[in-house]
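Hey, I'm writing a tutorial for new members on how sequence and structure tokens pair up, and I'd like a real worked example in the thread rather than a made-up one. If someone can provide the structure for the chain below, I'll link this post from the tutorial.
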Amino acid sequence: MLLLAHDWNDQRIAAALGITDKTLRRHYFREFKIRDAARPRVKANLMAMVWEQAKAGNVSAMKEFRKLMDKHDLRMSEREFTEATEAPPVKLGKEELASLAAVSAGVELE
């Protein structure tokens, strides 16, 4: 799961485990079915381990968990800012469209 989370291909994973590609696929087919979920799963496990250590009083784990939270907060702020700065498309009525068409054609309407 860890190697899948780091986007290793089948051949590289098999070589790291000291087995053939065929053996890898035969014995780890369940893991390969959820390849896309590997990174979120590993990250979630890491966060859970850091959280447990922080709750137990490990100061380094507390600092690391705070860093993880700060990174998340920054990503959320960036997402909110991007969504807020994107202008929604403006819908124009028939008269406004005709006026724009006339101006772009070099004709001014009264």
